[in-house]
Amino acid sequence: MQRRLPGPKKLQSSLLSVAVEQVPKFSCQVCLVQKPIDIAQLQPLISDHDAGAHGWFYGVTRRRTGDKITASLSYQAHPVMAEKELARLANEAANRFELKCIVIVHRTGEVPVGEASIVIGCSSPHRRQTFAALPWLMDEIKREVPIWKRETYTDGSQEWVHPITEVT
Q1: Closest Cα to residue 76, out of 107, 98, 114, 51?
Q2: Angle of helix 127-144 versus helix 79-97 axis, rounded to 10
Q3: 9, 32, 120, 18 alpha-carbon torsion, rounded to 10°
Q4: Is the distance from CB of 69 to CB of 154 less than 8 angstroms?
Q5: Phi then psi dihedrals of residue 48, to 5 deg
Q6: 3, 65, 99, 106: which has the fewest C-beta neighbours closer than 10 Å?
Q7: In a structure prediction context, what are the per-residue pLDDT tens digits for the chain, which is 168 residues long?
Q8: Comparing C-alpha atoms, which of 56, 44, 47 is closest to residue 15?
Q9: pTM score above 0.85
Q10: For every residue of the chain, which 3-state class applies, written as one string?
């Protein structure tokens, strides 16, 4: 059974600016940030007394892409559209996987090797729902959300990487 979810409302908090869905028994928080993602601050955002499973995905800048060595990644986004799409996908995931809470934080700007460019957390009553939701969300974010990635390599070369052609 699918739940009908209203559109996102902006909420300003001391933690981060997020789009929050006003749905009973469901919490959705998404945002774009331009600084390192503080994962410890995000952990309470997926807490729910009816959730027996908490799962996390950290997308981290890796050093090698094929035979090239990466110096850094740089992300650009259309912020309003990106947050709207992130909230839409979070709502779709909540319906599809019966999630209790979702948090998605995507970093923009320069992201050095070893640092997270995206963190997705979700909770659900049982582990299978959480385990299934994380790869689905990441694949859909790469496919649907207007965020673009430029890789800068140690040899000084750069290239814009489209998620559809990127090696997963």
Answers
A1: 107
A2: 150
A3: -20
A4: yes
A5: -155, 130
A6: 3
A7: 334 333 433 333 333 334 444 444 678 899 999 999 999 999 999 998 989 999 999 999 999 988 999 999 999 999 999 999 999 999 999 999 999 999 999 999 999 999 999 999 999 999 999 999 999 999 999 999 999 999 999 999 999 986 665 544
A8: 44
A9: no
A10: CCCCCCCCEEECCCCCCEEECCECCEEEEEEEECCCCCHHHHHHHHCCCCCCEEEEEEEECCCEECCEEEEEEEEEECHHHHHHHHHHHHHHHHHHHCCCEEEEEEECEEEECCCEEEEEEEEECCHHHHHHHHHHHHHHHHHHCCEEEEEEECCCCEEEECCCCCCC
Q: How many residues does the chain have?
A: 168
